[in-house]
Amino acid sequence: MALTDILSAIDQKTDDEVAKIRKSGQEQANALKAEFEKKLHDKKEEILKNLKATADRKVSQASFQVQSQVSGKILKKKREVIDEVFEKALEKLSSLNDAATTKILVNLIKALPKIEEGEIVPVKGAESAIKAAASEAGTKYKISSDTTKGKGGFVFKSEGLIIDNTWEQIVLRQQDLLETDIANILFNG
What we know:
Elements: H1 3-94, H2 98-110, E1 119-122, H3 127-137, E2 142-143, E3 153-158, E4 161-166, H4 167-187
Parallel strand pairs: 1-2
Antiparallel strand pairs: 1-3, 3-4
């Protein structure tokens, strides 16, 4: 075998080894690239999943806030309607004719507690109606020359006891009692 044959065989062997190393290197590079692409894809999916969860949570929070604001405005409007109902009741009570007013006042005076002494303080402008109603009710209570503010009715005063029977307070007490029923009638059919 000649030296050229040996050198040629060595070159061939070297070329074969270089080709094997290149092939192995390329396979490893391809495997690393595939692993990188898979990890990159998985990371993108995880980030997208987290972003979607965050977006869904923010949308839910915003929806709740909007719903709360809408509910608050509806509740405010309902409150205004109910208040208007009782304001109209007060107006109606204040505008009753003398006979109807006297009848109500007589019933209120008769419903006063049966105690020895007391004083009826009329609403300013209703003094004569109170005197007439007290006379008709047959009460022994004194009618005060003082007056109180209001649209009608009176305040009963006795030692340690005050009963406010002004129209405003009567309507307010009825509002406390009837508000839920009126709201159900108005808003729930």
